[in-house]
Model the fold of this input.
Amino acid sequence: MNKHFLLLFAALLLCRLPAIAQDQYAAGHVYLPGGDTLAGSISSQMTARYVKFKTAGEQVTEYLPSQLTGFDRNGVVYVTREVPTDPFGVKTIEPLFMQLLAGGKVNLYAFLERNNETFYYAEKEGKMIKLEGGKKLTTVNKQAYYTKDKTYQVFLEQLFSDCSKPNLHLCEYTRKDLTNAVLTYNRCADAPTARAMHKKEKMRLHPGIRAGVNAYAEDNYGVQYSRSMGIFLNMPLGRANRVLSGQVELNFNQYRVASEQFRLRYNYVDFTPLVKATYPKGWVRPFVAAGFGFALGKLRGVSLTNRQSVELKVSESKLIAETGLQVPLGRRYAYVAARYENFVNMPEVKTRSFNFSLGFAL
Done:
């Protein structure tokens, strides 16, 4: 690969790093206690305890939950409510910005705690009730294991007692199931006021390009460097924005071997499916990936003693392990990665193959 292109790509990535620390803004409104509404842009939320609001004149104001009745951002509504919390091991009651998932006779809220744990609350007639559930650690005969905690179903049965109950035994402790259960009750109890506020996440595919160098050696010969480039498509596994994603790549890889007697050059077109796990938070996010590759191409060899050359069609399969760092750039991202390739159908040849690459996803 062209060395100047690699240096330019790295320079562009470094130039974008100062922008990573900046807040990501989207259109929204803040609601003041006196009933006034201000329109502008609102930053992304890492916790339930603050919001940054920016006017058209670029003036930024940070609001606490006690200073607003709520806000909306990109169509998602947050309401200020006071609830008991235990963020640092000290129990207290504090106002929080809570996302409104369903509204009506019963309101359903969610908020994200500092440890990335999501909590759900139901509100009826001004009373807030925490919906306990999920997994519970249980110890029996000194053996600890997790069981399902379905306490939330008992609370929902009490809240829904004045109307036909949804099939709560089928309701899991998930955002989707809890929202559907509350909506079913609200439509039964007071249909005109029932409304769904939860915005369904859209699956976002990320096409991109990658480029780098291969460090390759066979047997006892020294490492030779050659180019690598390709295109890829990354897609979430399950819900959007989850930790796990799948990635398929179509790459051109070149590998070289050199000695005093001969020169070898492999030119391959690789199809590579991978499973990737990315840490979901932070300005720089580590990731690991694993998969395999199928390669078709040509081997060209030249003898340096008699100048004879040979050209053969070849195919390879390989196992792949990769690690790297990913930098979000709004809805896009860039990354740097180091990859190890194990050629599984070359057991008689001792190979060492590493790939170092830069990538950019739309």
Q: What stands out?
A: The longest helix spans residues 3-20.
